[in-house]
Amino acid sequence: MSVEGKNRVITTRKLLEMKQNGEKISMLTAYDYTSARIIDKAGIDIILVGDSAANVMAGHETTLPITLDQMIYHAQSVVRAVKNPLVVVDMPFGTYQGNSREAVSSAIRIMKESEADALKVEGGSEVMESVRRILSTGIPLMGHLGLTPQSIHKFGTYNVRAKEEAEADKLMEDALALQEAGCFALVLEKIPAVLGARVAAALTIPVIGIGAGNGVDGQVLVLHDMLGLNNEFSPRFLRRYHNLHDEILGAVQNYINDVKNRDFPNEREQY
Q1: pTM of the complete model
Q2: Catalytic residue at 23?
Q3: How is the chain split into domains, by residue range?
């Protein structure tokens, strides 16, 4: 089913128009029905069903352990909840690197079983064969360059990427190659702001940043981080819009006290 066929308010075409009109694009992660419903109502443009679910939902140290079946499950939950935003799903580690035939098979499975609108993959020239084969099936694809968490063991660090000229040049080459291949958008993670602005200016497709400065076409954050559910992660690029960790902690402690003190349930809360 095409994106337009779902009557989404936000489509890949709409995102391109937003860039052309200078309208910034808002993007957040979601992994479950309830959260997705809320941020849909708020008016978000894109929901990313991120492989960061491995971290914030399952407690893994990296994004690598999450499986294709698990990503499909999270994507199904989100798609059932939303009407307006474009739903993009991360292809998990091991489903597209090194084997383009497996990449196509994995991509088709996600699209058929979740009914999502698009997929996202990490990397440039290293995964270009898979990118082209997935795009050849008609599946919309978003790229992801800069800090690519699925390659954490290769880099050995979560530090800022592309600070050196050679790496910055390769990132620009990869960005242009992904656009030429047919990707509808690109995420840039944790790179110098000057480079982020340069890439966004050079590309005709939308460029969405996370720690890539304000010169790109939009921003994405992990929902659990920006709501303050996860208070152990504090990179420079993160703005916390709430402190739900402490609010939930306090609410649960109040509930425990009320149960222990026989105050809950009271007479009005019984049948």
Answers
A1: 0.94
A2: no
A3: 4-240, 243-271
